[in-house]
């Protein structure tokens, strides 16, 4: 499934000259308001810290991201999308929709609803598991 999704994103990557990790970071920030630090991207997407740090650095240099120091904790850096990232986000959104349509092709409406329900529960379970170490 991951390979198919990467194939869907290939055209966008080429058009904007971005790596897979850079596309992943932009997509994450666009789709997860309030989750805006590199640490959250690493934790929630289960990506290597070094890859995310390097991707963020490149996206800042390319003008797609901006770093903002937290007002109460100067050690914490929030990431925000620049205006130049909005057309890219719109293209990623279209690709996501096409990918989802391909993935669910041939399923009945009831099967699609069941898939969505199971997927939501799996995400909740993953979040619980990610928080398990904190307790």
From TrEMBL:
Keywords: DNA-binding, Transcription, Transcription regulation
Record InterPro entries: HTH_MarR-typ, WH-like_DNA-bd_sf, WH_DNA-bd_sf
The HTH marR-type domain, residue ranges: 1-124
Keyword Lipid metabolism: no
One Pfam family per UniProt: MarR_2
SMART domains the record matches: HTH_MARR (SM00347)
Signal peptide positions on this chain: none
GO MF assignments: DNA binding; DNA-binding transcription factor activity
Name assigned to this protein: MarR family transcriptional regulator
């Amino acid at each position: 499934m991951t390979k198919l999704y990467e194939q869907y994103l290939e055209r966008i990557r080429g058009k904007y000259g971005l790596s897979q990790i850079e596309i992943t970071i932009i997509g994450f920030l666009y789709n997860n308001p309030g989750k805006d630090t590199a640490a959250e991207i690493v934790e929630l997407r289960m990506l290597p810290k070094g890859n995310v740090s390097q991707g963020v650095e490149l996206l800042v240099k390319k003008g797609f991201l901006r770093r903002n120091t937290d007002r109460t904790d100067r050690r914490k850096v929030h990431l925000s999308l620049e205006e130049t990232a909005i057309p890219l986000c719109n293209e990623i959104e279209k690709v996501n929709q096409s990918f989802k349509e391909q993935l669910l092709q041939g399923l009945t409406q009831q099967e699609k609803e069941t898939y969505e329900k199971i997927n939501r529960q799996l995400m909740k379970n993953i979040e619980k598991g990610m928080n398990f170490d904190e307790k």
